[in-house]
Amino acid sequence: MAVSSSASRFSPDRLARIDEHLQRYVDDDRLAGWHLRITHRGETAYDQLHGMRDREASAAVTPDTLYRIYSMTKPVTSVATMMLYEQAALALNDPVSKYIPSFADLRVYTGGPAAKPVTRPATEPMRIKHLLTHTSGLTYGFHHVHVTDEIMRAHRQEFGPPTGMDLAAACDSWAAMPLRFDPGTCWNYGVSTDVLGRVVEVASGESLDDFFADHILRPLDMTDTAFQATDTDRLAALYLRAGETTSRFDAFGDAAAHTPEFLSGGGGLVSSMSDYTRFAEMLRRGGEIDGTRLLSDRTTQFMTRNHLPGDADLATFGIPLYAETPFTGVGFGLGFAVTQDPAATGVASSVGEYGWGGLASTYFWVDPVEDLTVVFMTQLMPSSAYPVRSELKQLVYAALAG
């Protein structure tokens, strides 16, 4: 554990509670290993790791371990989009069809089975802002809660498109499927950010991996972050919790060792603790770090406010989905969940705190009030297996005792 002199707001004794709590996750075989870093006012306040990155190989978690960050890719794609926004290469009210013509004639599901759905024309064009806020009407096949999810699975798209389908083809396939609702009328977690990645490609003239590398990753010195593991020897094993059993999930996890056909702006990146901490710190500092500026502070403030209509929270405006983090008191910005009312969330956090997590239980958040970033890395699917994210917030904020 490391406690910096500038991090005097943190109690060393209370930070030690985090060690004890998370070590029990490893001791009880709930997690193979983990790494947590807290950065306060730009300096490391806490940096601890424990357990194995690969149980079967008896390989311990190391500071340079690589992790599949899955949906923590979404904020990176959202930043890429807003960089193009700042260049006037796109506008938030632009229809998606301006960049992907297949999105011109969208239809909305109204009834019937997945094999023969009844649909009607959408009343509103899908716009760039709808993709950023997950109010597009698109969904994920893995939700298993609605007919539109089943339609995705019928097209062999549960956690991603079938083998051989690239990003452009995947977007065209999604455009041909019925939306769950008219764009802008509800919130639902889905492939919106993957479509956004294709918009980035068309608006910039670069492939998504090249745009990330040229304009975000290299400028921020994020040398470990890419659409495949930069060093497979450092890649953590992926584990799956099913019922009472946790087992290695190579059938899913091995994809990270290979160059993908489908560049997923919604969930495709592999990263390290140091790299993602730099990304989170760039956001906390208003779009700049170490003299490299990706966004203006005005843009980052705009991204990290609630953009749901009427300042609604996810509990009232969103589709009910099981999650181990609260929807009550939490809004959604341009790529991030945003805390509106800490009392309603049941966690003693700050108004305006924002962040997101990944399928394998990774998580990050930024607290502008406390000048705080927190990044948690591990590799367990699904992220709802244990309440570790909400517990982390409780422990971290309780350690702010100075």
Automatic annotation (TrEMBL):
Domain Beta-lactamase-related: 18-389
InterPro entries on file: Beta-lactam-related (IPR001466), Beta-lactam/transpept-like (IPR012338), Diverse_Enzym_Activities (IPR050789)
Name of the protein: CubicO group peptidase (Beta-lactamase class C family)
Source organism (scientific name): Rudaeicoccus suwonensis
Lineage, opening ranks: Bacteria, Bacillati, Actinomycetota, Actinomycetes, Micrococcales
